[in-house]
Amino acid sequence: MLLYRKNRRTKALCIDIVRAGLRLQRINRQAQWNKLYHSAFFYNYFRFFKQKSQLLTDPHLGIIMWTSILYIKVAFNFSMEKNTIVIASDHGAFELKEKLIARLEKLGYQTVDMGTHSAESVDYPDYATKVARAVSEKEYERGILLCGTGIGMSIAANKWPGVRAATVYDNYTARMSRMHNNSNILVIGGRTTGEETAYDILETWLNTSFEGGRHDKRIQKISDLETKENNSAGKEVK
Ligand code: RB5
């Protein structure tokens, strides 16, 4: 009887955990709700275990508890990382950066603002490096860089392995940079792009997926350029 009750409780707990995990992933696009939801969820979760404190001494349920905490942590990290955009600008686009951060948050994304934090003159390669390094080292999946024209930022960012930074000026180039080039850093010029166009570009870029297929091979050739001995680009062309 005790075993039966225990199994029922275990089953219910497992269902609860799976549901929680799925829910965490579903709210992927609602980062603003994330903090609120998670704090409420964890509060209830730990209250439940505290109430049933004998569970802590039961090895069977103890394992389930710790595994589930691990599972939730993974789901949480997954949803946070996917939803987080790392962003930086120089003085030439400081104002646009602030506006894009506000827009991103309105759209449900988390942002990591790597500066600059004023309109005082700075060197764009320093800020390109902050975002490009984070994307190159897979700390974040996608980033945004802004300078006067967007050109300096993309030149600097593209020195980092695995970075595909694209300077775009309109919806079409934003869409193509995702569909064909799988760009992982969006670059916009603060002095060349109007506010409304920048918002359009941002949403298009965020919502467009890489097409893959024939473009996979081309992206691979770009990656090969990063390791000289494995460089395949140009070999088939006479
Ligand atoms: C800064 O004056 C300007 O050179 C920079 O923002 C950017 O346009 C470089 O490409």
Structure description:
- The chain has 238 residues and is an alpha/beta fold.
- The protein contains 9 helices and 5 strands, in the order H-H-H-E-H-E-H-E-H-E-H-E-H-H.
- It has 2 domains: 80 residues, no CATH class; 145 residues, Ribose 5-phosphate Isomerase B, Chain: A (3-Layer(aba) Sandwich), CATH 3.40.1400.
- 57% of the residues lie in helices and 10% in strands.
- A 5-stranded parallel beta sheet has the order 2-1-3-5-4, sandwiched between helices.
- It is globular, with a radius of gyration of 23 Å.
- Bound molecules: D-ribose.
Descriptive keywords:
single chain, 238 residues, alpha/beta, Ribose 5-phosphate Isomerase B, Chain: A, 2 domains, five-stranded parallel sheet, 9 helices, 57% helix, globular, binds D-ribose
Structural class: alpha/beta
Mean pLDDT: 83
Low-confidence runs = 26-32
| Oligomer classification | single chain
Question: Helix amount, in percent?
Answer: 55-70%
Along the chain, the helix and strand elements come as HHHEHEHEHEHEHH
> What is the CATH level 1 assignment of the largest domain?
Alpha Beta
- Find the count of extended strands (DSSP E, 2+ residues): 5
Q: What is the CATH topology of the largest domain?
A: Ribose 5-phosphate Isomerase B, Chain: A
